[in-house]
Amino acid sequence: MRDHDLSPWRHSHDFGNPDQRQAERRTHWVIGLTLAAMALELVAGWLTGSMALLADGWHMGSHAAALGIAAYAYAFARRRGGDPRFTFGTGKVSSLAGYSSALLLAAGALWMAVESVSRLLDPVPIHYQEAMAVAAFGLAVNLASAWLLGHHGYDHHDHGHGHGHADDHRDDGQGHDHQTHGRLQDHNLKAAYLHVLADALTSVLALVALGLGFAYGWSFLDPLMGIAGALLVGRWAFGLARESAQVLVDAGNHDKIASEIREAIECDSDTRIADLHIWRIAPAGHACIVSLVTHQPKPIELYRERLAGLPGLLHVTVEVNQCRQAACQAARQARSIPA
C-alpha cells in the first residue's frame, strides 16, 4: 500500500481553535496598553520627581513582562501546531504558560506580604494625594486590561473542530470523526486575566487604605490592605498552579467524560471496557484510549460511532479484544440456552 492511499485515515494533530487566536490578539492589546502606561508614568515621575510614579511605572514594566509569557505561549503553540515532534499537538503549552505565570503571581504575593509587614513594623511617610492619583490611574489601566481579556471569557463553551482516531488490533482498521462543543480551559488566558485582576485589586485596596488614612490619619491601613491583597493573590496563584499542573501531569478529574464513554461503549451486554485512559490535549478537548473486551467483535466503525456524539473527544483510539476463555465461553453458552 502506498503512502498516499492512507490519506483518508490521516489527520492533523493541531488542536488549536479560533478562540485562542482571538485571545492572543487581546493579550497583545493589553501588553501595548500596559507599556504605554508604563512609559507615561516613568516620564511623569522623572519630570515631577515623584518616586510613587516611578515605582508604579517599573511595576507596570514587570506586569508587561508577565503578560509577555502569555503572548509567547500563544505564538509558540500556533507556529508549532503542526510540528510532528509534539505527539498530540501543542495544546499543553497553554497550561505550561499558566503554571509559569502562577509562580510569578505567587512571587508577587510573597513580595507584597513581606513589604507590607516591613512597613507595618517600620512605617514610612505617605504622600496621600499623589499616591491616590497613581493608584487611580493604575486601576483605570488594569480595569481596561481586565475587560479586554475577560470580555471574551477564559472559561466558556467553545465550538471547535476535532478529530477522532480508532485502532482495531484485530484488522488494523482505522478512521476518524469530528467532535464539537468542548469545554474551554485556557490556563494561559486565565493567568493573564489574573495578573491584571491582581493589580486591579491592589489598586482598589490601596485607594481604600489611602483614602481612610488621608481622612483619619490611619496610616496602618496601607500595610494591612497589602497583607490582605497578598493573601488573596496567593490563593489565586495556588488555584491556577493546581489546575494547570493537573493538565501537565495528566491528573485531571475526568470522571464525567469517563462515565459517558463507558455508557456509550457498554450499551450492549456483550461489551465491557477493560482499560480506559483519558487526558487533556488542548484547552477544548481530550484524547482517550479505550481497550474493550467482547465475545463477538464488531466492525471498528461501530465502536467509533458510539463515541461520535460525545463532546470534547479530539483523538480516540479503540483497542478491541476478543474473549476466548473457556469458562467465560461456557457461561455465555449457558445463558443462551432457553429455560
Automatic annotation (TrEMBL):
Residues 31-249 form the Cation efflux protein transmembrane domain. Gene3D superfamilies: Cation efflux protein transmembrane domain. The chain crosses the membrane at residues 29-48, 60-76, 96-114, 126-149, 192-214. Its main location: membrane. It is found in: Membrane. Residues 1-20, 159-182 are annotated as: Disordered. It comes from Thioflavicoccus mobilis 8321. This is Cation diffusion facilitator family transporter. Residues 164-182 have a biased composition (Basic and acidic residues). GO terms for cellular component: membrane. It comes from the Bacteria. GO terms for molecular function: zinc ion transmembrane transporter activity. Keywords: Ion transport, Membrane, Transmembrane, Transmembrane helix, Transport, Zinc, Zinc transport.
